TrEMBL record:
Protein known as: Ubiquitin-like domain-containing protein
Gene3D superfamilies from the UniProt entry: Phosphatidylinositol 3-kinase Catalytic Subunit, Chain A, domain 1
UniProt organism field: Meganyctiphanes norvegica (Northern krill)
PROSITE patterns xrefs: UBIQUITIN_2 (PS50053)
Top-level taxonomic group: Eukaryota
Amino acid sequence: MFGSDLKRRKPFYQIIHVHYKEKVTMFITVCSDYSIGTIKRIIQKEIGIPWECQKLFNGREHLANNAWYLEDYDINNNSTISIEECNDCEAGAFLAAHLNIINNEIEGRNEVKITV
């Protein structure tokens, strides 16, 4: 889908806030050419999120090469956030099913909020 041409875009990562049943899940999709450590440092610097842990998502191909989700992320609070795999996350399933449409809608932007 868009994993192969993601690295040709600037910025190289996209942030998608999914509002689902009154909670926010934040997904970050990134180019696989960068190491986890590099991505962690760049995103922490760019958006000011302190990372407690990170885990590579190796599930659906729809989710590009690398993806993390941050569950119950408070947009107005920079408290430490845990990142886990989203295999069983309903919002993750929604995102996987609709990422192609979402990606086309946010071409050229690195952050978007959608309501499920």
